[in-house]
Amino acid sequence: MKFGYMGAFHVSNQNYFSNNTHLIFRLNNGVPNLLTLDLNPYSLQQRTRYEALYAQEQWTLGRLTLQGALRFEHAWSYFPEQQIGPVKFLPVPVVFPEQAGVVGYNDITPRMGAAYDVFGNGKTSLKINVGKYLEAATNHNTYSASNPTARLVGSSSQLTAPPAVTRTWTDANANFVPDCDLLNPVAQDLRTGGGISAAALSNNNFGKPIFTNTYDPAILQGWASVRATGRSACRSSNS
User: FRET pair for 32, CA 20 to 30 Å: which of 91, 214, 217, 226?
Assistant: First the structure.
């Protein structure tokens, strides 16, 4: 009988940057018509761990060799303390204390195998293996998707890819400068004073500690079915 242990600790620190205006301009035939706003720079941090214990045994009966094993796995993730801001569109920084991602997935998986020495000389054998193999516990998918900084409106994270925050505008004075109050989310028309016209912000939750979606706690913990299938479920919120 053999016993063993396996474990891993995955660390991910992703840094997002921007230009000094925190704006991306879209132009049509050289005429600007859309602004995309961001909350960069900030750091997206995540940690995933797993541990496994296993036992295996092998039996030989003549030309037939049988193998059996049982493996217990526990996997979880968390996010260290993170901060966004202060930046142009988030003057007051938002700090998220350390919090759990996947609270814990537990699995017991069997593995079995058989090998038959066809001619009894050890040169030709027929082998069969049956087992259950789980999605790897790493910094991706459900393990990372509930990261709070990845779920803010205007986040640049590719984990959940929240919609970009934009506002259309008319550069009436043709100076390529959105010279209005971009911190004001409502529509502004300053053309009578020689300024520009800017539509309302595409999402009024931009720059606020409000998440684009929430996760059902049931999918962030449990036995076997959740992790084995890699399913996820969340509820989106937009305004």
Answer: 91
As given in the structure block, the two tokens for residue 200 are 């309302």
pLDDT tens-place string over residues 77-133: 999 999 998 999 999 999 999 999 999 999 999 999 999 999 999 889 999 999 988
Contact indicator for 234, 216 with CB cutoff of 8 Å:
yes
Alpha-carbon distance values, 136 to 50, 74, 142, 230 (Å) = 9, 11, 11, 10
pTM for the predicted model, two decimal places? 0.81
Assess contact for 198 and 169: CB atoms under 8 A: yes
Which H or E run contains 145?
helix 142-145
Which residues contact residue 11 at a Cβ distance below 8 angstroms, ignoring those fewer than 6 apart?
47, 139
Q: Which of 230, 188, 203 is nearest to 39 (CA)?
A: 203
218: helix, strand or coil: helix
Amino acid at 45: Q
DSSP 8-state class, residue 162: P
